[in-house]
Design goal:
Largest sheet: 5 strands, parallel
Shape: globular
Strand order of the largest sheet: 3-2-1-4-5
Number of helices: 6
Radius of gyration: 17 Å
Number of domains: 2
CATH topology of the largest domain: Rossmann fold
């Protein structure tokens, strides 16, 4: 019997590829997608509206659990996620999968939060080479567009770009092929996990500064250019 699991869905290419692997794995049955939305009603950083994520889930054919927070404080998010995880556990779901590739701090954070409620984490893409993963993503005929880019590293030429082989070739040498370090974020709108392409509209790109609190307590500021994707 397959293990019933949930999948943390970010709407981007890494999530899509990780979910593809799980859907083709005889060991797992993905019964829910979980997406987290900030106080503006968008996926954090990705600036993707909840309506678009709902369209993705409908095209994938897996029920979507939406976790909305009233403010963008980390504690509010953690409390909301804890309630969601406990609810899933009551249904007999004890594992949640993620699309992370190699950021150890993220893996530790997710594993710790799940352990607190007696659940475990699954990482289908873990420690695989980003260069290989992006090639697989394109070979499987997934289609994704950038919705957020690091303004310093990439900027205007890379926003609202369909991710294809030319896009990868044009990435600067210091940029991870999958954008794993936050160089860019994407919205996946078509591919083998979807029954139909997901229609969307692009709003004009804007600049926004984010603050990230590191494990040592220091604060890192980064400037991003992003386009809100709407239904």
């Amino acid at each position: 019997m397959k293990k019933r699991i949930a999948f943390s869905w970010s709407g981007g290419k890494d999530s899509a590829l990780a979910l593809y692997f799980l859907l083709n794995d005889d060991w797992y049955d993905v019964v829910y997608l979980i997406s987290n939305f900030n106080a503006d009603g968008n996926l954090n950083m990705h600036a993707i509206s909840s309506q678009l994520v709902q369209r993705q889930a409908a095209a994938i054919g897996i029920p979507l659990i939406e976790v909305h927070v009233e403010n963008n404080e980390n504690g509010t998010y953690e409390n909301a996620m804890r309630e969601t995880l406990l609810s899933l556990k009551e249904e007999g779901i004890e594992e949640v999968a993620f699309g992370d590739i190699y950021l150890e701090n993220l893996k530790e954070y997710r594993t710790k939060r799940l352990k607190e409620v007696g659940m475990t984490a699954i990482f289908p893409l873990w420690n695989k080479k980003p260069e290989d993963l992006i090639q697989l993503f394109l070979m499987y005929n997934f289609k994704s567009i950038t919705c957020c880019v690091n303004e310093t590293l990439l900027g205007l030429p890379f926003i609202n770009r369909v991710i294809d082989f030319k896009f990868i070739e044009e990435l600067p040498e210091n940029v991870d092929a999958c954008g794993e370090n936050g160089e860019y974020h994407s919205f996946c709108f078509d591919g083998p996990i979807f029954s139909n392409p997901v229609d969307f509209n692009i709003e004009e790109s804007r600049i926004k500064e984010y603050e990230f609190k590191m494990a040592d307590g220091s604060v890192v500021r980064s400037t991003y250019r992003y386009s809100s994707l709407i239904a």
